[in-house]
Amino acid sequence: MKYSVLLLIAFFFSTFASAQTGLRGTVKNGQGEALPFAGVLVKGSSKGTITNAEGKYEIVLAPGKYDIGFQYLGFQTIQKSVEIGTGFTTLDATLEEQALRLAEVQTKAGNEDPAYTIMRRAIAKSRFHQLQVQRFNARVYTKSSFTVVDLPNLAEMAFRKQLKEAEREANFKVGVPMLNETVAEVSFSQPNTFRQRIIANRNSQGDFLSPNQFYNASFYNPTIAGTVSPLSPKAFAYYKFEYKGTFREPGPDGKVVEVSKIQVIPRQYGEGVFRGTIYILENTWAIHSLQLETVNNIGISITIRHMCSPIQGVWMPTNQRYEGSGTYLGVKAKGYYIRNLTFSEFVVNPAFVEDIEVTDEKKAPPAQTLSKSDIKGKQFDDLVKKQKEFSTKNLRQLVKEYEKQEKQARKNRKEDVTVVRDDSLVVDTLARKRSNVFWDSLRSVPLTTAEIKSYHKADSLGLIHEIKTPSQIASGDTARRDSTKKKSTNKFSPGQLLSGHTWRLTKQSSLIYTSPLARIEYNTVEGYTLEGALNLRYRAKVDSISRFRQIPLGEWNIGGTGRYQFGRKQFVGYGRASYQYKTTLLSVTGGRYLYQFNPDNPISPFLNSITTLFFEQNFAKLYQKDFLNLTVNASPFDNRIVLTGSLEYAQRSELTNYREDIKPWINWSNRTFTPNRPENDEVASTAFPTHNALLLNLTASARLGAMQYTIRNGRRITRRDNESPLLTVNYRKGMADVNYDFLQATINHSFETGIRSRLNYQLSAGAFLNDRQVYFPDFKHFAGNQFFFQQGDAVSSFRLLPYYQNSTAKRFAEAHVLAEFRKFLVTQLTVVRLLGLKENLFVHYLYTPASKHYTEVGYGLDGLIPQVLPFFRVEVISQWQDATYRGLGFRIGTTLKFGR
């Protein structure tokens, strides 16, 4: 019976496949060479497709007569008539290179290139074209291919066994493309709502989902992925333009349109700008097509091709192609991503009609020019009805006034105007289970021969993994084996004591064990140390926003950390219990542990272990604390404010090095280990007796400006590029054996000063309002550094400042400024920018009663070893006190943080 059903299903699908009708064929150039990713359009409808890498296309159409358009960037668009009967009809096309004619206004000596008046109009209408689209629904087919071309010899030698296993189990091999196909139903509605439903997904490396997120990229935006668009209002600061000619082709409703070819020439090529060609439609000044190239911050070259088609008079990018190639960390790879849209619903904003004439006031001012008062408060469509011709400046003002009115209308409707993008992604439960027949009915770009072979191998591997012998089926061994395999991760084995492990106890609870071998450290106070942890996590309730995002509404964590000090021959440790509800966290911690005097850990334990053992420099200075701490952290008002409060009772003790005759691994003749008691210019001695301290610590942080958010699957996310300054106020109160009041304020800000250029600063000031009894652990400490390797925050860290020499119990002021430049000194050379190197200048200043206006002025070059170790930088720093030069230093740095 079961086999009869299978035969019936197979017969149904074969009948369905044979019943399909449509077009297929090949698109070539005049020399007979295939044109990959050419556009194939069905005139009078929103249907269309693109050819594959072999120039072949296929599109499902009902029987009837059709006019089919074929287009390819740089070639003449042609149109052919065809009648489709039963089955698939073959229709091939040969395209000839586009012949350009020069406009009569070709430049004379001293005249401006005609490209500039074209681009001024296109830039003025860029936002207009975006607002034309009220909403749409579309089916989107995407295909991506990623190929690892070459691996470093060391990697191939070290991981030869793993690479063989990956080829056998996951269909991965150097030189073989990894494919991913996705069919999605996408909808958009103004001003910022995108909905995406994945209905089919297929991957040649296994049955897993990897939908691409490169939807809705528009060159009408000022920037695309941080790169300045040629249609940005700031475009003339970054680009020069050259007019290359004009051609004609059939447009919507049989009308002929004229298209101008504009060469886009960056003033300085590199990261953040494009170069290439953009085609602009005359009179409408919309994008007809483009081919632009850029390079990202790690040196990967990216080429973008868009071809637009008229959808109800609006030219939309229905055919998109992205290609990338380059080397990163020694791995050479290439890939492409194509996207094809078929619209099922398309609604044009009635306020934005396409009969508006835009004049370039620099060439020929319009008959009537509007003032700001003429525009303010007026309805966009009312002004358009009265006046059909506008200057580029007036049009920009009109669109800005329209958006202002729309935003106010949204406020009146109680909509959240701080949300600048609202995205959601839903995956159909059958998306990864679609049959080949189903894919053949949906796929708008046919597979190439190599891609078919790759899928066949992936399907064969999947079949091998699923095969069960008759005896296994009869005995149920397979089911038991699968069940045992799933549960094996929760079984205890002695090896887990060495490696650490997470045991999943129930759906809501986990036991997390961190092996002591995972954290072996060394310092002159404790000697060698081993530290392990055990933590029980329980999620009381989970709010499922989507299958990809689950937010715990109530989460408990209970655990402890133990540390053995071989030098002191003691155990220390602490326990912690916490409960989190949404954005509020309550925690209780208590025990005995060792801490650096600066609670921000200016040198990580890992790095201090290296400096101590290899360089005979014990920078970390520690004290012991027996404590009980209660902390509350909350983020009310949609995370606009962060509040933290803690109350701690502690007994604090000074410590010494565990031995006087400690020997490093490498004995440096000009160095010796220093005592654990820090040196300080403000006090004669930093010694302190064992004492008790009751400490109240309150911190509040808030953005000084309107916050902006994006929503992804219902989750609100603060935009990282928010340019509002962050103000933080901290108050500390010391009681019991200590007696002081400390107050400080800090402001952080980072904002763009140009393409790939930023200015970052941090200003901070504070004072001990009451300093009746202040011990060294309570001093205000600063982010110093005494090692040649600089880690941590590049903005707020000093480069040459001793860790504790300038700590104060009085008052302080500090300033940190770091300017990042895309183009400064050596980056004036294009080849240097293409390697991904960036330059920066920085100034660090500190005032305390004893610091003598300490100042550092430095220069840094980011990307020390391009494409291999791009996150390292080299710096040169001059040191000053009271405006007197004190010396020069060098640092190798990274923004990565090691340890804790």
TrEMBL record:
Gene3D superfamilies: Carboxypeptidase-like, regulatory domain. Residues 472-491 are annotated as: Disordered. Keywords: Coiled coil, Signal. The keyword Coiled coil applies. It comes from the Bacteria. SUPFAM superfamilies: Carboxypeptidase regulatory domain-like. Residues 388-415 form a coiled coil. Residues 1-19 form the signal peptide. This is DUF5686 and carboxypeptidase regulatory-like domain-containing protein. It comes from Spirosoma flavum.
